[in-house]
C-alpha cells in the first residue's frame, strides 16, 4: 500500500477488501456513520497508515494498545466485554462528568477504523485484534440503541452489523 494515499480509496484498496466490502457506505468519506466518514475514523486511518509506515510488520495489537490508551484514556486490559453492558452505558450517558462522545463513540470508531484500515490496505485483520473490534462494534450498537434518534440508530446499526459479518471473514 502506498502510504501517501489520503483517505479511503477503492482505487488503491486491497482486492480482498473490495470483495468483502462492496457496500458503498464503507467507502464514503462523507458519511459520519461509515468507518472512515467521521473525523475519528479518518484520523484513525491516517494514524494506522503512519504507524504501519514506521513500524513495518509489527503486530496490530501494538497499534490497538496505543489507540485504546491514547483515545480512550484506559488500559488495554480494561477494554473488555464488560464495557458493552447496557446498564453501564446508560449510567455513562447520564453522567455529566463522563464524555461518552470521546470515551465511547470516538474510541470505538477509532478501533473499528484502525482494524478496517488494515483490511483495506493489507487484505486482512489480525486475528488477535478481532475480539477488540467486536467489542467496539457491540458497544456502538448498544450506544446507538440508546440514541434519541431512531433513524440515526437504525442506519448505524445496519452498518455495524455488516462490519461484524465482514470481521468474521477477514
List the helices and strands and how they pair.
Elements: H1 15-20, H2 39-55, H3 60-71, H4 86-94, H5 100-122, H6 130-145, H7 150-169
Helix pairs in contact: 2-5, 3-5, 5-6, 6-7
Poorly predicted tracts of residues: none
For the residues shown, what is the average pLDDT?
94
SS summary, helix count: 7
Radius of gyration: 15 Å
Tell me the overall shape. Answer: globular
Query: For the report, how would you describe the main beta sheet?
Result: none
Order of helical and strand elements: HHHHHHH
> Helicity, in percent?
55-70%
What is the rounded distance between the termini?
Answer: 18 Å
Task: Indicate the structural class.
Answer: mainly alpha
Number of strands: 0
Beta-strand portion reads: under 5%
Describe this protein's structure.
With 170 residues, the protein is an all-alpha fold. The chain has seven helices and no strands. The radius of gyration is 15 Å and the shape is globular. The model has no long low-confidence stretch (mean pLDDT 94).
Q: Which key phrases capture this entry?
A:
170 residues; mainly alpha; 7 helices
Summarize the structure in short:
By secondary structure, the chain is mostly helical. It is 61% helix and 0% strand.
Amino acid at each position: 500500500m502506498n502510504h501517501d494515499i489520503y483517505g479511503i480509496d477503492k482505487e488503491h484498496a486491497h482486492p480482498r477488501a473490495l470483495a468483502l466490502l462492496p457496500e458503498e457506505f464503507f467507502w464514503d468519506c462523507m458519511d459520519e456513520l461509515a468507518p472512515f466518514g467521521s473525523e475519528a475514523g479518518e484520523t484513525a486511518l491516517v494514524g494506522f497508515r503512519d504507524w504501519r509506515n514506521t513500524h513495518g510488520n509489527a503486530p496490530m495489537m501494538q497499534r490497538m494498545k496505543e489507540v485504546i490508551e491514547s483515545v480512550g484514556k484506559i488500559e488495554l486490559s480494561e477494554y473488555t466485554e464488560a464495557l458493552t453492558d447496557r446498564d453501564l452505558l446508560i449510567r455513562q450517558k447520564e453522567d455529566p462528568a463522563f464524555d461518552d462522545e470521546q470515551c465511547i463513540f470516538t474510541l470505538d470508531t477509532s478501533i473499528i477504523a484502525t482494524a478496517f484500515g488494515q483490511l483495506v490496505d493489507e487484505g486482512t485483520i489480525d486475528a488477535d485484534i478481532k475480539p477488540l473490534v467486536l467489542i467496539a462494534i457491540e458497544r456502538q450498537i448498544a450506544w446507538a440503541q440508546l440514541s434519541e434518534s431512531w433513524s440515526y440508530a437504525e442506519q448505524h446499526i445496519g452498518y455495524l452489523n455488516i462490519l461484524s459479518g465482514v470481521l468474521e471473514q477477514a
